[in-house]
Structure prediction request, 346 residues.
Amino acid sequence: MKRKHLSGKSIGIVFGTFAPMHVGHVDLITKEKRANDNVLVIVSGSNTQKDRGTRTGLSLNRRFRNVREVFYDDELIVVDKLDEADMPPYPEGWVPWVNCVKDLITKNTDGPEKITFYVGESEYVIELNRYYPQAQVELIERSVINISATEIRDNPIENWRFITKPFRRHFTRKVLVVGSASGGKTTLVKDLARTYNAPCSLEYAREYQEKYNVRDDELDTNDYIHLLTDQYAQTAEIIDNGQHSWLIFADTNSTVTSVWVLSGVAVTIIAWWLLVSAFTQGFQAYHQRQFGFSGQPALSIALICLVFGVLLFCAPFFSAFLIGRFAASLIIFAGVSVLSFSFRLW
Prediction:
């Protein structure tokens, strides 16, 4: 992505933690854009636990990217970050802080004739006039939009309408419903979404297999990659489109899909192991009979391994749907018993 550069003669500087950025911040920055040729927005703080934003899960890097996303299509505004990790905490550290700000101005502008800081604290006016006398400093009144980042952090649901769109990802409550296949997850998720008037992200695997007419046993590595990435993209789109009020429900996620994929691999490995075991046990029973022994224990084990191996290997959908259910246990037990009894008679 090409870096935007400010070429105006007058530059407004707005800095803050922005944890999170709310519509009051946006209102202020928009007003200063009208009063200057350009605005440089500086997201300050650190990625350490000393930073109040980082302690709530909004690290400096994350805040910087979110704020830049707010103004991604505004050519008159540039967003940059100032890492205060190695600086003395406020109210100390003004000298290195101002030096970093000067570096950011040099990096993002063409040397403006006029630089104006817009601050909300009178202490900032005194310190900036002392350490950066070349710039002007204006003490601004709070936005007419009566909200603060602290209020949002304390109660994001109550103040949802004030949170800018990129920061809503962090405060969105995501309810994930997990469980085995054909266990009613989709029905439950739809019912919850209707009850709470919230959007839901359904299992993408089902849509994918219906769209491309692919069965469980036909899925390959490329299919699994699509299932993982597209499931994530589908849920992310619902969170980002702004059509919800802090709550979404998800039928599954990438982690659950990964477990499902790994379980399929595990079932295939177990099926092969059972079939190989059936062959070796059957061969052993044959040799025992050649030497006059009954070979019955080995033959019974071979039959059991064969039945389970065929069930797991040849009918994965049948296995996924019925294994773990009482009816399937009865059928398998009955089948093995009948076959074992028949060979015993033989």
Observations:
- Residues 172-252 form a domain with the Rossmann fold fold (CATH 3.40.50.300).
- The CA atoms of residues 181 and 320 lie 7 Å apart.
- The beta strands are 10-16, 38-45, 77-83, 114-119, 136-139, 173-176, 200-201, 247-250.
